[in-house]
């Protein structure tokens, strides 16, 4: 029998996540000129804070601030640029709003500075594999960390979609990284897993992940799903513009909730807030 997940308490800013109560919304705030869906829209402080305010007012539980694009083919930016993009935004959100903040980064130094600036959660798309200091840093800071599955880097990942056993290989990755995190001193209840839909997965594999999401519940850890506006939705709908994939995204949110997701990372917060409330009523 599946055990009930422990609530997650973000001690620093006193936020409580009761995983049995609802599905939580993570609103995406890309401070980048080149993200696949909204690159360039929020890469100055005024537009970024306005978007954060909009998402908070429309139901977001977490604001995920990222300064490094992770779209397929993206080049890595230098450390100073990433820090400059995210820290002022995090400080300003923390000053004006009572909201949980995550920092979307694969670099331990960025994570540490962001937590000091007011962030609560580290969201690492490499699952702690790109920077060997990331897991010890999360342990030292005592904050939750989201471990996502990926192969390669954003620049190379879409050439690395050859799996013998998609679900089994992702499960093995999580087993390894969870054990490494715990060995570094990360509290197990501070770990969230993300199967990485669209990251080193083609359209068929992303669909398969959603269909079999419930199999990851055996880790007895919160599950994050980020399918918002992604290319596999465009593949199904024949829509090349990511902004036209809102209702395709809504379908993935319903599927994810039925499969046991605890957090959904989305661009379209007002629309997905309604979808999630109804899906929660049906499946929770």
Task: Give unreliable regions as ranges.
Answer: none
- How many domain modules? 1
- Which structural class do you get from the secondary structure elements? alpha/beta
CATH superfamily: Dihydropteroate synthase-like
Major sheet: arrangement of strands: 8-7-6-5-4-3-10-9
Helix proportion: 25-40%
Give the total of beta strands. Answer: 10
> How would a textbook summarize the main sheet?
8 strands, parallel
CATH uppermost class: Alpha Beta
Rg, please? 17 Å
Q: Can you tell me the CATH topology?
A: TIM Barrel
Shape: globular
Walk me through what this model shows.
The chain is of the alpha/beta class and 284 residues long. The chain has a single domain (21-283), classed as TIM Barrel (Alpha-Beta Barrel), CATH 3.20.20.20. Helix content is 39%, strand content 14%. An eight-stranded parallel beta sheet has the order 8-7-6-5-4-3-10-9. It has a two-stranded antiparallel ribbon with strand order 1-2. Helix 1 (45-57) links the parallel strand 3 (24-30) and strand 4 (62-66).
């Amino acid at each position: 029998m599946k055990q009930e997940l422990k609530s997650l308490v973000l001690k620093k800013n006193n936020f409580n996540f009761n995983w049995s109560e609802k599905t939580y919304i993570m609103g995406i705030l890309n401070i980048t000129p080149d993200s696949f869906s909204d690159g360039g829209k929020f890469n100055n402080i005024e537009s970024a804070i306005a978007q954060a305010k909009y998402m908070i007012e429309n139901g977001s539980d977490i604001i995920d601030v990222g300064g490094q694009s992770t779209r397929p083919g993206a080049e890595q930016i230098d450390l100073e640029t990433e820090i400059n993009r995210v820290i002022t935004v995090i400080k300003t959100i923390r000053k004006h709003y009572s909201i949980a903040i995550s920092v979307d980064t694969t670099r331990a130094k960025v994570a540490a500075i962001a937590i000091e600036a007011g962030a609560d959660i580290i969201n690492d798309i490499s699952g702690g594999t790109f920077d060997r200091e990331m897991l010890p840093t999360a342990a030292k800071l005592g904050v939750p960390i989201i471990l996502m599955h990926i192969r390669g880097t954003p620049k190379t990942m879409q050439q690395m979609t050859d799996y013998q056993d998609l679900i089994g290989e992702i499960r093995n990755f999580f087993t390894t990284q969870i054990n490494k995190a715990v060995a570094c001193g990360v509290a197990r209840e501070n770990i969230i897993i993300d199967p990485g839909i669209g990251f080193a997965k083609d359209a068929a594999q992303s669909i398969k992940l959603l269909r079999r999401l419930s199999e990851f519940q055996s880790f007895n850890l919160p599950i994050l799903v980020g399918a918002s506006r992604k290319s596999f939705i465009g593949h199904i709908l024949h829509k090349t513009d990511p902004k036209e994939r809102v209702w395709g995204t809504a379908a993935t949110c319903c599927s994810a909730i039925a499969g046991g997701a605890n957090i959904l990372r989305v661009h379209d917060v007002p629309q997905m807030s309604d979808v999630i409330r109804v899906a929660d009523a049906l499946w929770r």
